[in-house]
Amino acid sequence: MLNVAVKAARAAGAIINRAALDVEAVRISQKQVNDFVTEVDQNSERVIIETLLTAYPDHGILAEESGSTHGNPNADHIWIIDPLDGTTNFIHGFPVYCVSIALQVRGKLEQAVVFDPTRNDLFTASKGRGAFLNDRRIRVSKRTRLNECLLSTGFPFRPEDDFDKYLRLMGDVMQRTAGLRRPGAAALDLAYVAAGFSDGFFETGLQPWDMAAGALLITEAGGLVGNFTGDANFLEQKECLAANPRIYAQLVPVLHKYSKFAGADDKRDVAEAVKTLGISRAAPDAPL
Fold first, then answer.
1. 3-state secondary structure the chain
2. In this predicted model, what pLDDT tens digit does every residue of 61-110 receive, in sequence order?
3. Please, what is the Cα angle at 207 between 78 and 25, to 5 degrees?
4. Three-state SS annotation for 35-64
5. Can you name the CATH fold of 146-275?
6. Which terminus of the chain has a lower count of CB atoms within 10 Å, N or C?
7. 209-243 pLDDT, tens per residue?
8. Is the CB of residue 240 less than 8 Å from the CB of residue 211?
9. Can you give the residue ranges of every domain in the chain?
10. Using an 8 Å Cβ cutoff, are 149 and 178 in contact?
């Protein structure tokens, strides 16, 4: 199944790379303010769906652009795909975007592919078998001090987003870390955390197809992923926090107050929040 997903991702990547040679000729439409879709997204999605359903006609597919489940919606096997994560980057010629494909079996993530066509970087993971970049085993970073970490995030861009809250959140994080980056493709951001290129990632407003493949890469690379309160049941919650275990434990106390799941009457003690992660304590100098 992983090989079929890789085949589908590479086929979509070929479509994206051909279109990138003349981005100005690509037809663009707008789903909502600052949320774009192109014929490249749609063509990439089409070839992924065809490849997966040809191999597994009884499976279901949850696809971003068509916004629906193809194949068998009641199947035990559901593919979750984003044919072009980072569309805004793509239409500006900014080379940070990817194809994301994940397989969920009875509600559990089992296979993951994130393909960066601009660099020909292929991130893969199978549950229980580790995560890889171009057939090389990858692991999350080993940093233990939050003030030495480089984190990535995504900025709010929809009219309904709470810009002021997110600015406070980013200000809170920026004062505690070595740097904050906004590359613009969540699936690739998660893959980079899995590979140890960055130490953590957080963002709100995400959909399952933004996070599914990257989430499995993270856990198979030894990291943790959940919502801002540390809840691992995050895929449908539009919140994502990912990092190596020690940094994750330090970020949860910082981010949990910005979570829509914390609530004004959330009295949970910070130490208890960290305890639920299965980590005895945060780093000695953790700036809580």
1. CHHHHHHHHHHHHHHHHHHHCCHHHCCEEEEECCEEEEHHHHHHHHHHHHHHHHHCCCCEEEECCCCEEEECCCCCEEEEEEEEECHHHHHCCCCCCEEEEEEEECCEEEEEEEEECCCCEEEEEECCCCEEECCEECCCCCCCCHHHCEEEECCCCCCCCCHHHHHHHHHHHHCCCCEEECCCCHHHHHHHHHCCCCCEEEEECCCHHHHHHHHHHHHHCCCEEECCCCCCCCCCCCEEEEECHHHHHHHHHHHHHHCCCCCCCCCCCHHHHHHCCCCCCCCCCCCC
2. 998 776 667 878 789 999 999 999 999 899 999 999 999 999 999 999 99
3. 95
4. EEEEHHHHHHHHHHHHHHHHHCCCCEEEEC
5. D-Maltodextrin-Binding Protein; domain 2 (3.40.190)
6. C
7. 999 999 999 999 999 999 999 998 899 888 999 99
8. yes
9. 2-137, 146-275
10. yes
| Spatial separation of the C-alpha atoms in residues 12 and 15, rounded to whole Å | 5
Contact 140, 218 (CB under 8 A): yes
Q: Residue 115's closest CA among 102, 104, 128?
A: 102
Supply φ then ψ for residue 90, to 5 degrees.
-60, -45
| Residue numbers of the chain with a pLDDT score lower than 70 | 29-37, 66-68, 157-160, 263-288
The letter for the amino acid at 63 is A
Cβ neighbours of residue 209 under 8 Å, at least 6 residues apart?
62, 63, 64, 80, 81, 82, 85, 100, 102
CA 194 centroid distance within chain: 11
Number of Cβ within a 10 Å radius of residue 68: 9
At 198, the amino acid letter reads S
Tokens at 45, concatenated: 């999605």
